[in-house]
Amino acid sequence: MSKAGTARKPLSLAIRAVFGVLFLLMGVAGFFAFAAGFADYPVIAPAPNAKPWIRGAYHVHTTRSDGKGTPAEVAQAAKAAGLDFVVLTDHNDFKPPAATWVDGVLLIPGVEISTSAGHLAAFGMQRPIEGVMPWGPPEQAVAAVEAAGGTAVLAHPVQTKNPWKDDATAHQVQGFELYSADTFFRQSLRSPVSRLLPAVGASLVNPVHGVMLLAVPEPRPTERFLELARERKRIALCGNDAHGLPAYEDIFNALGMELPPDVLPAPLSQDAREAEAQVTRALSSGQALCVFPALGSPEGFALEGFDANTREAPVGTVLTVRLPEHTPGTVEVRVWGDGRLQPDGQHVELTGPGVVQVEVWAHAPGRFFGHEWRPWLVPSPVRVMPRQPGI
């Protein structure tokens, strides 16, 4: 056999191997696509005659930075998903347009600042952010947001690619992205066969299910959040971190921030500036709820038994978790930190002092034909204070 023939044989085998792997991956993706056709959403049926909550998305990028959609296209996607507002956080966009109503959706200006320690999101500024250079020191960005009257948030603070690396400023910032769609995606890259491929396959048939398959929380964000929340009031947010891929509408249908009617009754003011103030005050108060709406609406949920303004309660207090109507076995309360879930599954005794995180999880469609537990309703934490002598 000639040398040329000898060389072609290994090359041919290599090509066959590559095509074999590709066909195998396509087959596996096809299996998950088939399974996705049986995924049934929502898991929890909507409550009849309930007062509507104000629904929105926080941490969204447009063509003003690295997003694929214009602000108008983002508003169209938000309207299709039934949202009332979107907080736009384009990278280092220090002079964003003023708040405005577009296609029935309130677009609220915000920013995501690139610092040498990670990314800092901010919203609710009363004045322009000044004196900040991209990739500058983190303390400069934090101080600038505070001077502008805004609320600063550690964006995807514990992810592998862009974690927040400065401990001193982490203790200063009030907001924390406890769940981040971008972090979920980057986590899946570390498990391409068991997590990313099922999500890609499911997206071919059921895009929202594909996004939800990425929502697999890991312990480190909660651990870090509770460390910081023991010191002062902190707010938990779900960061859509939407760039247009996956589609904005699919991300909006998967997770977002919602405001209870007792915090902010619907509808919002038609004056864009007034509506912006209503939403940003509610978000920064810690009374907004992180929701995975694909699993169901939050109507009927409440966490009671603490001071709603300070989000504090003394040791020994028993919190009550009021759950939306649901089929038994589809919902469970989970508790982290200085609290203990009582046997009835709806009361939490505060055992602190420290902090307690209470979440509601739902039994959601899984990667195959079964179900997996996923976060559904996520309020901000409650600080547990020492009981005063004599009380």
UniProtKB/TrEMBL annotation:
Keyword Membrane: yes
UniProt KW Repeat keyword: no
Keywords: Membrane, Transmembrane, Transmembrane helix
Transmembrane segments: 12-39
Polymerase/histidinol phosphatase N-terminal domain: residues covered: 56-117
Pfam families: PHP (PF02811)
Domain of life: Bacteria
SMART domains the record matches: POLIIIAc (SM00481)
Full protein name: Polymerase/histidinol phosphatase N-terminal domain-containing protein
Organism: Corallococcus caeni
